[in-house]
Design a protein that fits this description.
- The protein has one domain (3-93).
- The termini are far apart.
- The protein is mostly helical.
- It has helices at 3-9, 21-28, 35-43, 52-60, 73-77, 84-93.
- The radius of gyration is 13 Å and the shape is globular.
- Helix content is 51%, strand content 0%.
Length: 94
């Protein structure tokens, strides 16, 4: 199992502080966050199987936040943990 998969299966509370998006933003500024970390802040929470960082990474699939608008609503809804409310609010936030 890869590092990311192990990291994404841990609860956010179990991760070191330097990997937490909110704490990283407060300490180093919002510009220090990756697109995955920014999206994680917008999402707020993940699922039982995957923390919010894993969910954000799965949504972006290697794309940037700029490309998030081009992802179809139907495709977002296929991702476990993304319902109509999250998908709509994320498209509004971007």
């Amino acid at each position: 199992m890869g590092f990311k998969k192990v990291l994404y299966r841990k609860k956010i509370k179990e991760l070191p502080e330097e990997l937490l998006p909110r704490e990283k933003a407060l300490k180093y500024g919002i510009e220090s966050l990756s697109d995955v970390e920014l999206l994680a802040l917008l999402l707020g929470q993940g699922t039982k199987e995957m923390n919010v960082l894993g969910l954000a990474d799965r949504i972006l699939q290697g794309k940037s936040l700029e490309n998030l608008k081009s992802i179809k609503l139907e495709d977002l809804l296929k991702i476990k943990g993304v319902g109509k409310a999250k998908s709509s609010s994320n498209n509004c936030n971007i």
